[in-house]
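Hey, can you fold this one?
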Amino acid sequence: MNRHRDESVAFSALFGLPAEVGMRMAAEALSLGLSTAYKRARSGEFPCPLRKVGRRYVVQLTDLMRALGIQDVRVHYDDFEAGARIARGRSDTWC
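Sure. Predicted structure:
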């Protein structure tokens, strides 16, 4: 795959995070008990938008991150590669 050096990708995509998560993971991330999370979902008071898939509730990862105050920022490949070089102890190759 050819890519331009100025390409960027969302943080969540770069690290292969799922596009959506189930109620158990969302509740855990929000420090809610599972029964409390379901009660809030049924009453419309869940901290982020939910979608019902069959009998399950799912939450878009970006919505969950927003509810947690985490930005899904764009990461430039050059910055990611430079960070990897620094992590490997090769900061002399910064440019």
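The chain is about 40% helix and 20% strand. Let me know if you want another pass with a different chain boundary.
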